[in-house]
């Protein structure tokens, strides 16, 4: 077995970096080497930032977002439209919608989708608090912004069923031709959905 | 090892950031799993959605390996099915049922029924009728088929109206009248060879109650499972809608 050329601390750093999305063992080694070469400029600030984030990050008790304050920055923003609630699968989806500045509504993070194959049922999702929020009278519209996958849409239909008795308008994102998309290259399902949801022009 | 054929996708599980484990049902090979490289790419993600019919080629060094699938779409219906509650819940329910059969165990009749059902999952109440028939077939394929050919008491082949929960055999209206509160109603559409009109919602509900009883007793309870939650969602979706 080849002897390790670095100490256990660096091995540990490489091992942890390789568990990040987009990084494998090889790219983790490169990243670790780069960090160590720029110890003052990168490694130490990164370690401090990671420690500070780890100490203060928490799950928002209202929407399930990740932030350093509770309620999170979105939930505590008074300029947000409190009558619109956007339901997303994950925090990454919330960030994507915020990047796109697509809505001024508030959010609710489910924490996943119903997936029998992975053993994720309704109890594993953040659904009971969604029901409470829908019933508090402030919310007029719930937008189901879940992925256009079978699992995402199963979750959307389940949420719609669950909220059937509430006095809230439930909408979902349109499915169709993406910006820059060429019809010739689109899959049949997207084309069929786009044709079905066509709008007056 | 290699084989090619037509398959219907019944499930996809993420594997790392770019790949996925695809679960398909085939006519000759049964339920089969394999890895699809790049399944989360923009091109392949819509293809590997459950409900789609695919042309698949499976390759592995040894037969017992997970192996890799190469997939090409034949019928991409997932996008259409997603819009309907009955279809999306039905699709998940079919996946749950097919996971009861062992991997790589061929069930051509179940494949044929699945292929028909995925075409009509958004057609109510036909979807419910076909689902009840699929559930009867599943029981039969697993060795717990109901005998709906003749009355268990009199041998009559006409006017069958009940099923005995004990034996799983049909009972005629006359013979079962005295015990009707202990028997399960048998909707006529499950035993009629041909008919002119679609069954009403009550008959469909009876059929789903009948199959639920035997599915739970023979297939789910012995595995310490209860009927999948998604079955209630499917029932609500198909029974709440008005008749065609």
From TrEMBL, chain A:
InterPro entries attached to this UniProt entry: DNA_Rcmb_RecR, Rcmb_RecR, Rcmb_RecR_Znf, TOPRIM_dom, TOPRIM_RecR
GO-annotated biological processes: DNA recombination; DNA repair
SUPFAM superfamilies recorded: Recombination protein RecR
Toprim domain mapped to chain residues: 83-178
Listed Pfam families: RecR_C, RecR_HhH, RecR_ZnF, Toprim_4
PROSITE patterns recorded: RECR, TOPRIM
Zinc finger (C4-type): 60-75
Keyword DNA damage: yes
GO MF term list: DNA binding; zinc ion binding
Keyword annotations: DNA damage, DNA recombination, DNA repair, Metal-binding, Zinc, Zinc-finger
Domain of life: Bacteria
Gene3D superfamilies: 3.30.60.80, 3.40.1360.10, 6.10.250.240, RecR Domain 1 (1.10.8.420)
SMART domains referenced in this protein's UniProt entry, alphabetically: TOPRIM
Family: Belongs to the RecR family.
NCBIfam families membership: recR
Biological role stated in the UniProt entry: May play a role in DNA repair. It seems to be involved in an RecBC-independent recombinational process of DNA repair. It may act with RecF and RecO.
Protein's UniProt name: Recombination protein RecR
Species per Swiss-Prot/TrEMBL record: Faunimonas pinastri
Highest classification ranks of the organism: Bacteria, Pseudomonadati, Pseudomonadota, Alphaproteobacteria, Hyphomicrobiales
Automatic annotation (TrEMBL), chain B:
GO cellular component: bacterial nucleoid
Protein name per the record: DNA repair protein RecO
Organism: Faunimonas pinastri
Biological-process GO terms, alphabetical: DNA recombination; double-strand break repair
Annotated DNA replication/recombination mediator RecO N-terminal domain residues: 1-73
Alphabetically ordered keywords of this record: DNA damage, DNA recombination, DNA repair
Pfam families for the chain: RecO_C (PF02565), RecO_N (PF11967)
The gene coding this protein: recO
Protein function: Involved in DNA repair and RecF pathway recombination.
